[in-house]
Amino acid sequence: MPNPCRLMVNGEIWEGLVDPFETLLEVLRERLDLTGAKQGCSQGECGACTVLVDGNPVMACLMLALEAQNTQIETIESLATQELHPLQIAFVEKGAVQCGFCTPGMVLSAKALIDKNPHFQEQDVRAALAGNHCRCTGYTKIIDAVMSLSTGAKHG
Amino acid sequence: MSYCQPTQLSDLLSCLAHPNARILAGGTDLIPHLQMGLVEDPLLVSLKGLPELKRIEAKPEAIHIGPAVTLQTLIDHKPLREIYPVIGQTLSQIGALQHRQVGTIGGNLCLDTRCSWFNQSAFWRESLGFCLKKGGDICQVAPKSKRCHAVLSCDGAIALAACQARLVLLSRAGKREVSLMEFYRPNGMDHIDLRPGEFIYKILLPHAPPGFQATYFKGRARQSFDFPLLGLAIATQWDGAQRTLSFVLGGVESCLLQVQMQNLDSFLTPEQVQSAIKSCQRLARPMENAFYGPSWRKKMIASFIAQGLQQMNLIQEDAP
Ligand SMILES: Cc1cc2nc3c(=O)[nH]c(=O)nc-3n(C[C@H](O)[C@H](O)[C@H](O)COP(=O)(O)OP(=O)(O)OC[C@H]3O[C@@H](n4cnc5c(N)ncnc54)[C@H](O)[C@@H]3O)c2cc1C
Ligand code: SF4
Ligand code: FES
Ligand code: FES
User: Fold this and answer.
1) B138 CA to centre of own chain
2) Do A145 and A94 touch, CB atoms closer than 8 A?
3) Which residues, 6 or more positions from B83, have their beta carbon under 8 angstroms from its beta carbon?
4) C or N terminus of chain A, fewer CB within 10 Å?
5) In chain B, what residues touch A132 (CB-CB under 8 Å)?
6) What is the mean pLDDT of the segment spanning B231-238?
7) How many angstroms separate the CA atoms of A36 and A88, rounded?
């Protein structure tokens, strides 16, 4: 039986009826047309569906839409309003994007880290991105891109 | 499938009395199971509406941990980190940050057992003819066996058992307390001692006994995130003038396994180390149902015990 659901996504309220088993990912992609969060495995294994819930990275395929009520949800679409976010610029400049499927999740996991600890080190980046898989880049350029924004590390 | 979010404990207990009720805590185990058709038509009972289940309180007799406390909250909890560093050490090796932010300790303790023939899509399992644990009548791993050998895979239980945690279980019929060791039983299709309508209401951690020290080792395929193929917690404490040692094993049976050694001196002799290794290896009966097979898991028991005892300074360095 559909249940009423009220979500706060990128600062805007969305209200609708959802099935109990509709995931946050399905609602974002299919009802709100926010297709930045990708559907990879639907098993919590790849991180492509990562969004921020109250500032923390969460796999949207593992969260029911009904459980995401009363939280602040941020998707990749909220990052670039007028211009690109510094993380997005760093990903472009360091060549950290190939097919781009993992990129929204990577950028949001990195954003959660940077927002909490601007002095992060490489080991923090590796830990923060451990749940985000990339089939293309080999990770080095992604780590370089995020590290280029650390205020506590030397980079070239 | 339906969903409810009770906001009173009494309503939660009424919802749990429904025959198909399943608690939805963080959902990081239950939702993949639903996606794979391993759980059918449940009444999902959310814990989101009950803030009292998210509390950590230090009481005179024990630290009380609510089942809906997330793994990351426990990792970041400073007083707990000081008393029982092994808990943070262990929980930070569970899944990735995304799982630890939403995954709860109650959900971890009730994590379903895992098997490479079971954690598969319905299509995959159907092509094989299913198995005892879901929809079939034989165990694909041990066809002559009457029980399921899927593996206990919750790291948190292994560490908490080494800290002698107890559980308060609650249902409409009342409250009871069990030790974590007793909570698990050797049958992968029915591995936890929860009666109908019952749930983990609290986790009780005793205040650390004198000289308590513990460490955790996890064997897995990928370091980034993966379930344990072998989890070993080693704990020691003083009992008067004698040392006690406890080895808790997970990832090798459907329940936790434990080997205890008592009346020890400050340091272990090489014979005592070998005896600990042999006892643990004898007790563990890993099957061919995880990414690494039984021989690797048995060998790693020896390696983890030797490393752990060294790290905990329980083996005397040779005199120069
Ligand atoms: C890719 C991936 C990797 C993972 N790696 C690991 C790992 O390395 N180690 C590990 O231990 N776990 C791992 N997990 C599993 C999981 O993230 C954690 O174990 C988590 O703590 C489970 O908690 P939850 O709140 O999400 O559980 P849920 O999915 O909400 O619940 C799990 C089960 O417990 C029951 N339950 C929940 N709370 C209670 C309660 N209070 N009383 C009674 N029953 C209850 C539920 O009904 C359900 O059957 C992984 C998961 C994924 C998807
Ligand atoms: S151990 Fe046997 S019965 Fe249990 S899940 Fe695996 S194949 Fe199925
Ligand atoms: S789609 Fe969510 S983790 Fe892969
Ligand atoms: S750029 Fe293709 S998956 Fe990462």
Assistant:
1) 26
2) yes
3) B63, B207, B208
4) C
5) 96
6) 97
7) 13
Contact A48, A107 (CB under 8 A): no
Give bridge partners of residue B243 from the DSSP assignment: B238, B264
Cβ–Cβ below 8 Å for A127 and B2: no
Percentage, residues of chain B above pLDDT 70: 99
Calpha distance B97→B225 (Å, rounded): 9
Residue B64 sits at φ, ψ, to 5 deg, of -100, 125
R_g of chain A computed on alpha carbons: 16
Q: A65 CB near a chain B CB, below 8 Å?
A: no
Q: For A145-155, what is the mean pLDDT?
A: 81
Q: Is the beta carbon of A97 within 6 A of some atom in ligand 4?
A: yes
> What is the pLDDT confidence band of residue B151, given thresholds at 50, 70 and 90?
very high
pLDDT at A155 over 50: no
Neighbours of A98 (CB within 10 A): 14
Look at the domain A86-147 and name its fold: DNA polymerase; domain 1 (1.10.150)
DSSP calls for B174-209: EEEEEEHHHHB-S-TTS-B---TT-EEEEEEEEPPP
How far apart are the C-alpha atoms of B30 and B41, rounded to whole Å?
12
Residue A62 has its nearest CB partner, among B2, B31, B224, at B31
CB B148 within 8 A of CB B187: yes
Do residues A94 and A33 touch, judged by C-beta distance below 8 A?
Answer: no
Instruction: For residues A88 and B136, give the distance between their C-alpha atoms in angstroms, rounded to a whole number.
Output: 50
Domain ranges of chain A: 3-78, 86-147
Task: Give A31's DSSP letter.
Answer: I
| Inter-chain touch A64–B98, beta carbons under 8 Å | no
- Residue A24: nearest ligand to its CA? 3
| Residue carrying structure tokens 């290794």 | B277
Q: What are A131's two structure tokens?
A: 């749940």
